[in-house]
Design goal:
The structure is a homodimer of 114-residue chains. The first copy, chain A, has 114 residues and is mainly alpha-helical. Chain A has a single domain, classed as Winged helix-like DNA-binding domain superfamily/Winged helix DNA-binding domain (Arc Repressor Mutant, subunit A), CATH 1.10.10.10. Chain A has 6 helices and 3 strands, in the order ααβααββαα. A 3-stranded antiparallel beta sheet of chain A has the order 1-3-2. The longest helix of chain A is centred in the middle third of the chain and has 13 residues, at 51-63. Chain A starts with 11 loop residues before the first helix and ends in a 14-residue tail after the last helix. At the A-B interface, helix 1, helix 2 and helix 6 of A face helix 1, helix 2 and helix 6 of B. Chains A, B: Keywords: DNA-binding, Transcription, Transcription regulation.
Chain lengths: 114, 114
């Protein structure tokens, strides 16, 4: 059973946000679009996220069917996360957000607010 | 000065989410796409949102340049909120989220989780 919150709204937009709308969710999807990544790579690419929040978000995205993972055997013995096909279908959403955001203010200097 | 959080990430996606990514933000934009609305209409259309959160979100969206408002004089004496041109430019994001969300699970029965 899903552990994430729901808007309780049957519209497609609300149901999408139930799956990927929590803080950092769409940025994790953005960073997996180029290809599979390990947890440490994702963590390094999102300076403001804590390991706990990244773990929770990945767990929700896996539960939601947006991300999948593989545990690579020897010699690496690491877990690699990747988008599912449905996850990759978010590309147009991210493309339009990227365009729209060009007119948004640049972030304030200093560390991101959690 | 903006009161909302920032990811501290200069990408267009992160900057978009700094402006409209907080919980309920994109649903308020969705409900203003058809045209201007009063606070009470917005509140009625988002069953899970509290008046305080809606007020905060509207304040942030106005501050962010996504929403504007007019105070109508007599006889109505009400405040009407509407999307700015930049706000309306979010339409493709919402359209793609709506499509993507058709494959997302329907919300659980019962009241939405706050």
């Amino acid at each position: 059973m899903s552990t994430s919150r729901s808007y309780g709204d049957p519209s497609g937009i609300a149901r999408s946000l139930d799956v990927v709308g929590e803080r950092w969710g769409l940025l994790v999807v953005r960073d997996l679009l180029p290809g599979p990544k390990q947890f440490s790579d994702l963590l390094a690419g999102l300076p403001g996220i804590s390991p706990n929040v990244l773990s929770k978000r990945l767990r929700e995205l896996v539960e939601g069917g947006v991300v999948d993972y593989q545990d690579l055997g020897a010699p690496d013995r690491v877990r690699v996360y990747e988008l599912t096909e449905w996850g990759r279908d978010l590309e147009p959403v991210l493309r339009h957000l990227e365009q729209w955001g060009q007119r948004a203010p640049l972030p304030p200097a200093g560390p991101p607010s959690r």
